[in-house]
Fold these 3 entries.
Entry 1:
Amino acid sequence: QVWLVESGGGLVQAGGSLRLSCAAAGTTSNIDNMAWYRQAPGKERELVSSITNTGNINYADAVKGRFTISRDNAKKIAYLQMNSLKPEDTAVYYCRADRRGETFWGQGTQVSVSS
């Protein structure tokens, strides 16, 4: 069992920055992939960025150049550095981890960006 706890969300002005953290606990060995998703009101959950245990990274086009995903395998923490935030980035951000064919989700953290 893997538990994921997100933190770092909040309310910021457009152009500001936030860093989200996702801490894994429980059976944390062999987590192959970690990812950040987001879901805005009235929209489906969408992939923001993902990172494998070897450092392979993907970004959604909407955040490329502004967001940076990273992972500390020793500390079992994934990060999402968000710069140049826009109002359209407003959403609940969820952390996802994949371990040996199982998927685990965090509870989500709210990110709100004002104009």
Note: The CA atoms of residues 19 and 81 lie 4 Å apart.
Entry 2:
Amino acid sequence: QVQLVESGGGLVQAGGSLRLSCAASGDTICISAMGWYRQAPGKERELVAAITSGGNTNYADSVKGRFTISRDNAKNTLYLQMNSLKPEDTAVYYCNAHTLGPCGVVAREEALDAWGQGTLVTVSS
């Protein structure tokens, strides 16, 4: 199993920057991809950015050019650098890890997702 712990959320003014961190533990060798999702009040959870084990990245159109996803494999940590923040970016941000079996506690070929507890990002106008 994989456990995820997020940190770095907080209050920031529009135009400011913030960096989120996600520390992974457990069966980290089973992780094939990781990503950041966010959910604003009254809205559905959406994908913000993702990165595969091979280093390929994908971003939501709303954050392209402003956010950067990266990882440090040696530290088993995922990052999201957020620049030029807007009030629309206000949301709870969740770290996600996609795993493939058989690996760790998964005995069969199966895809599972691990989630962090979420960290709140508030951007004031």
Note: Residues 69 and 80 are 5 Å apart (CA to CA).
Entry 3:
Amino acid sequence: QLEVAESGGGSVQPGGSLRLSCTASVHAVSHYCMGWFRQVPGKEREGVAVIDGDGSVRYADSVQNRFTASKDKSLGKMFLQLNNLRVEDTAMYYCTVRDQSVCPWHLNPASYRIWGQGTQVTVSS
């Protein structure tokens, strides 16, 4: 019953920008931990950012100062603004939600069980 769905991916040149969206329920966005993760084929899924129910955000070091996660409770949406994109940012980006108010300290995908289908971000020249 707790579901999320991503959108907004695309193909851009290095240095470009994209904004990803994650649609969930208003209740989930208002109260629960939510997060963005990404995965390249053949590699482990890795954390990008997580947002606590109160809106506190934590980022992976690799995206700090380039990506911005936020949420709009009234819309039931979480966003990820990706700026100054690099080739190594190319990945499938996934949204997740967890039925607790505070996210686990570590950005570990094993801590999450509910995922969207993903939206592809491709950065190439």
Note: Residues 2 and 116 are 11 Å apart (CA to CA).
